[in-house]
Amino acid sequence: MFTKLQQWLSAIFLYASFWLSSFYDKLPLTLSDPWKEIIFASPIYFLITFACFSLATIGYRVAIFNDCTEASEELKKEIIEAKKDLEKKGLKIS
Amino acid sequence: MATGSDRSVGYGLVALALSIFTYYTVWVIILPFVNDDHVIHQYFLPRVYALILPILAGVIVLSALGGTIAVILGRPKKQKTS
């Protein structure tokens, strides 16, 4: 099977060859000017899309971030238990 | 539950990302199909700036990062006192 790296590289090469052939007017298609402009700007557009997606993901994760109060109480209890246990066995904890 | 300020900052970031994405999509994808004398062109800079501004921002951010890293790595190392 193909690894993720190979998949990404082949997709990027495919896209780059398409973009370059459009840039040098080698495509066997007659595209109207708006389409040419869009293809010309598409790398930056994908970059901006990726940036917006990353920003939105960070924002969403910040918004739903939880305070784990129960887990913190449980952890404190377990620390006390462990300290008692270790002191019983002769370890000094400052 | 996240605190109120966390939630407002988080959803604010999501809203900011969505609005930038919408504005940029209209600017780059839809505007080439709209006639040049249409009213909507008042609200957007000429389309060259849709390419120049991100590239400029990228260059500034990358050079700031590189400069910071260079300054940090170029600092003389602290002598270890043993």
UniProtKB/TrEMBL annotation, chain A:
One GO cellular component assignment for this chain's record is:
dolichol-phosphate-mannose synthase complex
Q: Does the keyword Cell wall biogenesis/degradation apply?
A: no
Residues spanning the membrane: 7-24, 44-63
Highest taxon of the source? Eukaryota
Where in or outside the cell? Endoplasmic reticulum membrane
Q: Which UniProt keywords apply?
A: Coiled coil, Endoplasmic reticulum, Membrane, Transmembrane, Transmembrane helix
Pathway terms, separated by semicolons: Protein modification; protein glycosylation
GO BP annotation list: GPI anchor biosynthetic process
Membrane topology designation: Multi-pass membrane protein
Record's function text:
Stabilizer subunit of the dolichol-phosphate mannose (DPM) synthase complex; tethers catalytic subunit to the ER.
Subunit comment: Component of the dolichol-phosphate mannose (DPM) synthase complex.
The Swiss-Prot or TrEMBL record describes its family as follows: Belongs to the DPM3 family.
Task: Give the protein's recorded name.
Answer: Dolichol-phosphate mannosyltransferase subunit 3
Organism listed in the record = Capitella teleta (Polychaete worm)
From TrEMBL, chain B:
Q: Name one Pfam family in it.
A: DPM2
Q: How does it sit in the membrane?
A: Multi-pass membrane protein
Annotated GO biological processes are:
dolichol phosphate mannose biosynthetic process; GPI anchor biosynthetic process
One GO MF term: enzyme regulator activity
Q: Does the keyword Transmembrane helix apply?
A: yes
Cellular component per GO?
A: dolichol-phosphate-mannose synthase complex; endoplasmic reticulum membrane
What is this protein for, i.e. what is its function?
Answer: Regulatory subunit of the dolichol-phosphate mannose (DPM) synthase complex; essential for the ER localization.
Q: Under which name does UniProt file this protein?
A: Dolichol phosphate-mannose biosynthesis regulatory protein
This chain's source organism reads Capitella teleta
